[in-house]
Amino acid sequence: MKLAADANVLLSALIGGQAARVLRHPAIKEILTTETTLAEVQEYAGQLAHKRRLAVDIVLLAAATLPVRTIPRAIYAASLVEARKRIGRRDPDDVDLLALAIQLKLPLWSNDNDFENTGVVWHTTAPLLAALESK
Fold first, then answer.
1. What's the CA gap between 14 and 12, in Å, rounded?
2. Which end of the chain has fewer CB atoms within 10 angstroms, the N or the C?
3. What pLDDT is attached to residue 55?
4. pLDDT exceeds 90 at position 4
5. Contact present, 100 and 73 (Cβ < 8 Å)
6. Domain of 125, in residue numbers
7. How many Å from the N-terminal Cα to the C-terminal Cα in the chain?
C-alpha cells in the first residue's frame, strides 16, 4: 500500500507515537508527501521535542531521515485547482497534500478531520493500523 502522509502523522512517528508502527509495517510499500508538508514537519520537530522533553538533535535527525519520498509540486500541479475547491476554505495549508492524493490516486493518511468528505480515501492512524494488522 502507498499513502500520502500529512505532517501530523509524521510528527507523531518522530516521537514514537502509533504512527511509527505504520511507517514500519510491511504492508506499507511507500509513504509520499509534499515539500510543503515535509517543511512543516521540519519546522515543528524541534518545538515538539522541547514540549515532550526529548533530545532536540535526535528528533531533528529522525525528521531528516523519515522513510518518506517527497514529490515535487510539478507532479501534482494539475490537481491543485480541484484540491483547492475541495479543502481550500477549511484548510488552505492542506491543498497541496490533497492535490497529491488526487493526482496519484492515493489514500491519504492524516489525523486531521479536514480531509473528511474530500473525495479521497482518508485514514487516521488507529483505524489504519487496525486494518493493516488484520491482514
1. 5
2. C
3. 85
4. yes
5. no
6. 2-133
7. 12
Closest CA to 109 of 47, 55, 40, 30: 30
Note the pLDDT of residue 64: 87
Contact between 71 and 31 under an 8 Å Cβ cutoff? The reply is: no
Q: Dump pLDDT digits (tens) for 44-87.
A: 888 888 888 888 888 888 888 899 999 999 999 999 999 999 99
Calpha distance 99→46 (Å, rounded): 27
pLDDT in tens, 125-135: 999 999 999 87
Distance CA 24, CA 43 (A): 23
Does the pTM of the predicted model rise above 0.85? yes
- CATH code, 104: 3.40.50.1010
> Quick one: average pLDDT of 16-37?
95
Element (H, E) at 29: none
Q: How many residues does the chain have?
A: 135
Instruction: Count the domains in the chain.
Output: 1
d(CA 107, CA 98) in angstroms, rounded, equals 10
